[in-house]
Design goal:
Blueprint (H helix, E strand, L loop, with lengths): L16 E4 L4 E7 L4 H10 L11 E3 L3 E6 L2 E6 L3 H10 L5 E5 L4 E7 L3 H6 L14 E6 L2 E9 L2 E7 L3 H16 L2
Antiparallel strand pairs: 1-7, 2-5, 2-6, 3-4, 4-5, 7-10, 8-9, 9-10
């Protein structure tokens, strides 16, 4: 795969640290269109800045990101944010909070060549470029969410069942980068 400038860049995966994010708490906030104000009020009551736009991530542990017109995702490394948001949403008729922590796995990719590594795994145009942005992309034919949390740090989220498959891809990249 080539860089945005069109030249093929060498990859040294040894410069990219990959670690599993633990603990990782994930909450899906699903709502009908008429509940947007209710959801925004719940977010603000828990200290989050409000509703994110498509591709946008708001907050900092917890983070809230846009998934669709009717769904947001809350990510946190402590239980406090998800618990507070679940309580704030309550048992509303138009919105609900769905616990998804057991169903998702997260990896933190960190290092100077994290973008070059991702360009070998996903369409290079879909890698979120600025801190506070996210994208749902296809990685080796599975859906993942990429969340830019720092210039050299990206979180990769996927269904937990794909952990072994993703680790195999990371290992493969390490193998081919060592052969060059």
């Amino acid at each position: 795969m080539s860089s945005p400038e069109g030249e093929v860049m060498p990859l040294d995966v040894a410069t990219v640290e990959i670690r599993r994010i633990e603990p990782l708490f994930v909450l899906a906030i699903r709502h009908l269109p008429d509940a947007a104000d209710e959801v925004e009020a719940a977010l603000r009551s828990t200290g989050l800045p409000g509703l994110p736009w498509p591709g946008q991530v708001l907050g900092r542990d917890p983070w809230i990101l846009w998934r669709s017109l009717s769904e947001l995702m809350l990510l946190a490394t402590t239980r406090t944010g998800p618990n507070a948001l679940t309580d704030a949403i309550g048992n509303g008729l138009l919105a609900c909070a769905v616990e998804q922590s057991d169903g998702l796995i997260g990896f933190e990719l960190r290092g100077a060549q994290v973008d070059e590594m991702l360009r070998r795994l996903v369409d290079h145009r879909s890698v979120p470029g600025s801190v506070g942005s996210a994208a749902r992309v296809r990685l080796a034919d599975i859906a993942v969410v990429l969340l830019r949390v720092g210039m050299d740090k990206v979180w990769l989220l996927a269904d937990r069942g794909y952990e072994h498959y993703l680790r195999a891809w990371f290992n493969y990249l390490a193998t081919i980068s060592c052969d060059r």
